[in-house]
Every structure is written in C-alpha cells, then in structure tokens.
Design brief:
heterodimer; A: 110 residues; mainly alpha; Dissimilatory Siroheme-sulfite Reductase, Chain: A, domain 1; Arc Repressor Mutant, subunit A; two-stranded antiparallel ribbon; 5 helices; 5% strand; B: 507 residues; Fumarate Reductase Iron-sulfur Protein, Chain B, domain 2; 2 domains; 3-stranded parallel β-sheet; 47% helix; globular
Chain lengths: 110, 507
C-alpha cells in the first residue's frame, strides 16, 4: 500500500511500515498519522525523534524500559511510563510509534 | 474497537451454533522470498508444487511414525469437536480439531491409501489442488498447536503435529508465513526473534541495572557474555523488550542475586523461543537450538536455565538433547536444562529466599497454565510438577491466590489464543475470538473471587493477554509475570534499611 507524501509515492509493506527506511521525512510521519486519524503533537515528536536517534545508533527500536526512561528524563518522571506512551500511541508505542518514525516493525513475542 | 464481533463471555462455556466458513477469510501474510530462502525453503510457490507437496507428505509420514498413526486412526468419534478454543470462539466447523486434521487427511488418503487411490469419493479423498492449499494456509494458521484436543482424543491424536506437518509441507513448496519465518531468519542471523544486536542488548541490560538500583538501592547485575559463569540463562527476547515480560527478567536477576549465583546471558543465544517447532521444521529447530550449545561451550558454563517461555520449555525439556546434545560438558549434578521456576522453587525450599508477600497484597492472582508447559513438559521430579511448581511459587510470594475453573487449567488449560506462531497483528480477529474461553474462565474468578490479575510463564501468553484483555473489558496491565511477583516480594538481604528510603509505601 503506497502512501502519497508531498506529491511523491512512497512504498510501504502490508502493515503500513516503510518498505525503504531511507524514504522517511517528517512529512511521512504526518501522513501516516493522518491515515490513522491522529494529529502529531510535540509530545508525539519527542518520542518519534528519540526512536530515530536510538535506531541510528543500535539498528533496532528501543526496549520499552529504555524508551520510558529516556522520555522520563526529558519530560519529567510522571511521563516516564508506558501508560503515558499508550495515551499518545494507543495501538502500542512499540508498533505505532515505530511506524511513524520510519522504523521496521518490532518482531517476536512482543 | 474492532471490525469484527467480539464473543460474549458467558457463565458456562456453550457449544456455539455452527457458522460455516466464518473464518475462511483469515490468513496471515505470506513470507517474502528472502526469509524463505534464509530458512532453506523456496522463495515463492514453485511450479510443480502439487507433486512436491504430495512427496513431502510421504516423506514426513515415513519420518514421523506418529503422523501416519494420527492420519490412520481417527474414528470420527467427535470427542475433540468442542475442545478447541478457536472453534469455541469462532463457531467455524473447520476449527473443530477433527475437521482441521481432515484437511490433511483427505490428501493423505488420496495418495497413500488403497481406498483413496481407487475409490476417492467413497473415503473423502481429494487431489492436492490450489483450493486445498489455500484452505490449508488459512486453517493450519488457525491452530495454536496447544494440544488440548489431544487430551480428550481416545486415540491421543495430536492435531499440533498434523498442523506442524502441513506448515512444513507449505514451506517446502514455497508458501511460508511471514511472522514465523521472518523471525526464524532473524534468530539465524542475529540470535533472537527481535533482531536485537549485542550493543542494544548490552545497553538495555545496563539500563535495567540502573532502574533496579534506583528501586531497591542494591547493585543487581544483569551479566552478559561472562565467560566462566556457572549458569547460562536463556530467556525469550521479549523479556528484554516488552512489558510485563521485563519485570519477570528483573525477578530472575533478583533471585540469582539473592542466591549468590554466578550467571550470565549470552548475546549469541539471546533467545529461548524456537519458532522452528511452530513451522514443523526439524532442521530450523535444530539450527536455533545449536546456538545455545555453542554459547554454553564458549562461555564455559556448568548449567543452562530457561526463562519464562512456554514452547521454549517444550523444546528444551523434550527435544534439546536430541537437537543439540549430548550435554556431557555440563555439570551432571543438575538436570539439563532447568526451568527458572525449578530453580526458584528449589531455592525457596532450601530457605535461601525470604519474602514479604504483603508486597503483592494489592492483587488477587490466578495462574494461566501455558499450553506447552502444561501439556508437553514437566518440572521437578514428580508428575504434574509443571502445574504445581509455578502455583507453589505464587502462593509463597502472594497472599491472595485463586484457581480458575478446573476444566480450564492444568492439562485442560485453554490456550491464550496467540500461541503456535499466530501472535501477529494480521490474525487479530482469530486471536481475540480464540481468547474467549480463557477470558470467560478469568471473568468467572474476577466476578466470584475478586481476582485482579493473571500470572503467566510464557512470553507469548503475556503479549497476547496484554493485547486481548481490553477487548473483553479488562485492562492490559492485568497480566503479570510470575517472576515479577517473586521479585516484588523478595527481601534483598543487602538492601539499605527501610527508613533510609524516602519513598514510603503508597499502596
């Protein structure tokens, strides 16, 4: 299912994740979120940016505790938990946020 | 919340009125060529697939005597028909175990029995056609290989083995399932289902050490690749990555710390799960298992202990010696392998662990027996140990414990609905509907005894429940790891004294 972003057609896999990770731009994230009926706020971007930084360094999405800890450090302890992340990304921070951030879908028993 | 009907949770489990083909549309995404090939299968459906499929079936029935016995011995007594959670949740008659078996049996009869070869119509034998293959792809991915039906079958026919064979045949002709095969390819390449490389694993474990230090004031280690450690812990990679799994991992680390054990994880064998079993591929199951052997040898450990993972424990307990043995280089004073629950229970019995069960007083627990542990393995040295030991542990560390109804636990346990390689978003309808019998049993103890949480010892069960509980009016955090309960109640003997901490109990 390709998506249209700024006049360009971008390939995604069956589940809506980018087929080519280099195709990612902030506009791609916006377009994917729009399809799910979500408007990306600064709070979403904090998470998306962290995911991208982490992926750059480790070639994998961060584990949930790595993510909650990083968000807690940045935004305050009350936000450093998965409840906060599920409020932002109701389909699951691991999967929905990774999709918007242009990361591959985490696989396994997760 | 969903674009399908969510089954109603009734007080008694009823046999639903049949809905033919209710789940005929359900099929998982097909594996890409690169992952098929990484597992040694053709990249896509090959030209002469009909011949190859029939030959493969012949090969499998010769190799696994049990398969031929299962295909020959069914007398259509009907005892299995209402035992499958997918049938109970979907009402699709093809999800009756006997009907699922017949999808393969009818092809077997056509090519490998006298009556089927000469009088196919009389014995319900059919040719291997595209239609049959598509039906296989759909309905053999609606079996979580939980083996509940086999408990009630007077002949002990094991549908799991039949569905494994069907998946193996499909892989052999180039029609594989994306979820399982992509994951197995990652294990071959990186060492775990997630594709979590060593630096990320090291960083994650370091973060956990900091977190536990903040919580307890104690330096509890999560050692990685430590040569010369006594114990190699092999645990599902979900334990590093997801909730509530990670709280179980923290629990194991606390137990090892308190018992003074020398232990390590391995970045090379950073996965307990073995999806090779789900796809019925002996060769892939063997390749995955041999990583554990290699890691154990290289690290020079004396013992191997498995973390909370259901089918991993089946593979480990039942097949590890054949797949990756002999284990004569390990310490013969310990069973190979051991389950973390055996280790913890043994330490409890020897008085090495002290608990404050009131730490878990905000919960009333019940225990979900994971299918592969309950029906395909054992723990300890007595029959039924795999059912008793986890419960004994929970009852030691929690004051409030209630079992679910008897016909839904123990060897009669209902699958979580996500086992056997079906824990994927593209099968969500199946997963939600298949969870109905377990959810109904859970609801009965929630309503009657005020149960608040469900504990499990399987990464798949934990993820599945976190996902499906909300469909049935519960919350995702009601599923907990057994070793999370252990870790929370464990009194760490080197913890700083209570009044030094500024965070008082807020429960």
């Amino acid at each position: 299912m390709p998506i249209e972003v700024e006049g360009k057609t971008i390939e995604t896999d069956e589940e809506g994740y980018l087929a080519n990770l280099n195709d990612w731009t902030p506009a791609v994230a916006e377009a994917m979120a729009k399809e799910d009926g979500t408007e990306l706020t600064d709070a979403h971007w904090e998470v998306i940016n962290f995911l991208r930084e982490y992926y750059d360094e480790y070639q994998i999405a961060p584990a949930v505790r790595v993510l909650t800890k990083a968000i807690g450090k940045k935004l305050g302890k009350e936000k450093g938990n998965s409840k906060y992340l599920y409020e932002l990304f109701p389909y699951g921070p691991g999967k929905q946020a990774c999709k918007y951030a242009g990361l591959p879908k985490p696989t396994g028993c997760v | 919340m969903a674009d399908f009907d969510i089954p109603e949770l009734k007080e008694t489990l009823e046999i639903p009125p049949l809905k033919e083909d209710a789940m005929a549309h359900s099929k998982p995404y097909v594996a890409k060529a690169e992952f098929q090939e990484a597992l040694g299968f053709p990249g896509e459906l090959i030209d002469n697939w009909e011949d190859v499929a029939v030959k493969k079936l012949g090969e499998l029935k010769g190799k696994f005597r049990s398969l031929q016995v299962f295909l020959d011995s069914c007398v259509k007594c009907g005892a299995c028909t209402d035992k499958c959670h997918y049938f109970l949740g979907t009402a699709d008659p093809k999800n009756m175990p006997v009907a699922r078996q017949d999808l393969l049996r009818k092809v077997y009869r056509r090519y490998y029995t006298f009556a089927g070869r000469f009088f196919p119509k009389l014995v319900g034998a059919v040719d291997m056609t595209r239609e049959v293959l598509d039906e296989w792809y759909s309905y053999f991915h609606q079996c979580s290989q939980c083996r509940r039906c086999s408990v009630y079958c007077p002949y002990g026919i094991d549908t799991a083995e039949i569905s494994m064979a069907a998946r193996e045949i499909m892989d052999a002709v180039g029609l594989g399932q994306k979820y399982c095969n992509e994951i197995i390819a990652k294990v071959h390449k990186i060492g775990n289902n997630l594709g979590l490389p060593e630096p990320a694993l090291a960083d994650t474990l370091e973060g956990l050490e900091e977190e536990v230090k903040d919580d307890t004031g104690v330096d509890i280690k999560f050692p990685l690749d430590v040569k010369g450690a006594d114990i190699l812990l092999v645990t599902p990679s979900a334990d590093f990555f997801a909730e509530p799994h990670v709280d179980g991992l923290i629990g194991y680390a606390k137990v090892f710390h308190e018992t003074g054990a020398s232990w390590t994880l391995s970045s090379y064998a950073s996965e307990a799960a073995n999806f090779g079993m789900f796809i019925g591929s002996y060769e892939n199951m063997r390749r995955v298992s041999r990583r554990i052997r290699k890691a154990a040898k290289e690290l020079g450990v004396k013992r191997i202990i498995f973390g909370e993972c259901g089918h991993a424990w089946r593979v480990a307990y039942s097949f590890l010696n054949t797949l990756a043995g002999p284990w004569d280089f390990l310490d013969p004073n310990y069973p190979v392998p051991q389950h973390i629950c055996e280790y913890t229970w043994d330490a409890i019995q020897k008085g090495k662990l002290k608990f404050d069960p009131s730490e878990n007083d905000h919960m009333t627990l019940t225990f979900h027996d994971s299918c592969n542990v309950a029906r395909a393995s054992r723990m300890g040295d007595k029959p039924g140990g795999q059912l008793e030991i986890p419960r004994n542990i929970i009852k030691t560390v929690c004051n409030n414990y209630v079992d679910m109804p008897e016909n839904t636990i123990g060897e009669a346990t209902f699958c979580c609905g996500g086992g056997g390689g079906l824990l994927t978003d593209d099968l969500m309808e199946l997963r939600v509907k298949g969870a109905m019998p377990r959810m109904a049993a859970y609801k009965s103890v929630v309503d009657e005894y005020g149960v608040t949480n469900l504990a499990a010892i399987c990464a798949i069960c934990k993820t599945q429940f976190a996902k499906v509980l909300p469909y049935y009016g519960f919350t995702m955090d009601q599923i907990v790891s057994v070793h999370q309960l252990v870790g929370d109640a464990l009194i760490l003997s080197d913890a700083p004294s209570e009044d030094a901490g500024d965070e008082a109990d807020d429960e």
